[in-house]
Amino acid sequence: MNKKKVSLLKEKIKSISLELFNSNETLSITTNHIAKSLGISVGNLYYHYKNKEEIIKDIYLQMSSEFEDLNIFDNVMKSETPFTELSLMFDLIGELFWKYRFLMRDSTLLIALDKDFKDIFIKNQEKRIKQIEILIEFLISKNIIRNISEEDIKMISKVSWFISAYWQTYISTNGELSKNSIKEAKDLIFKLHLEPLLVN
């Protein structure tokens, strides 16, 4: 099998897996379901991924890469209207989280079941919280939000990340995820943590 065909099939495996995971409980989907949906043998699937966990990790890394491609933090800091840009960037994040909604819905489960996934998730989590801290410090430096203590900056950053990362887990315990439920996470962060700090 040439490299191009391998790459194309691997992308198809990720794409179909993402659809299946989004539409069903992650635990209910097996490599057999994925292979059947693709019309390939399980052995062929295992040539590319040794198990379902490997597929999930690859999808998570893909989502993280797409997040980086948004250049959210740079775009906000370079904008003439940073707070407005931040709101727009949150909308883009919402679209991304909707695309990969099973990861947002089932993150705590995936962390509990797979140490490798947990390690990747925690590393990414630490990075995002630090980025939020830098962003808040930037908004303070531009006199967009009022000055607050370093302790409060860290607290707001952690809580903002918590809402972004785990709101869908909470929603899924009471009903179905929707684009509107993802937007609720943005509204919570802005109304509870950012808008009350606005200087004007």
Describe the protein.
Helix 10 (150-174) packs antiparallel against helix 11 (179-194). It is elongated and about 60 Å long. The mean pLDDT is 92. It is 80% helix and 0% strand. It folds into two domains: 1-50, Homeodomain-like (Arc Repressor Mutant, subunit A, Orthogonal Bundle); 52-197, Tetracycline Repressor, domain 2 (Orthogonal Bundle), CATH 1.10.357. By secondary structure, the protein is mainly α.
What structural keywords apply?
200 residues; mainly alpha; Arc Repressor Mutant, subunit A; Tetracycline Repressor, domain 2; 2 domains; 11 helices; elongated; DNA-binding; TetR
Low-confidence stretches: none
Euclidean distance between termini CA atoms: 62 Å
Structural class: mainly alpha
H-E order: HHHHHHHHHHH
Q: Tally the helices.
A: 11
CATH topology of the largest domain: Tetracycline Repressor, domain 2
Quantity of strands, as a count: 0
Mean pLDDT: 92
CATH class of the largest domain: Mainly Alpha
Strand content: under 5%
Within CATH, the superfamily of the largest domain carries the name Tetracycline Repressor, domain 2
Named CATH architecture of the largest domain? Orthogonal Bundle
Major beta sheet summary: none
Globally, the shape reads elongated
List the domain count as a whole number: 2
- Helix proportion: over 70%
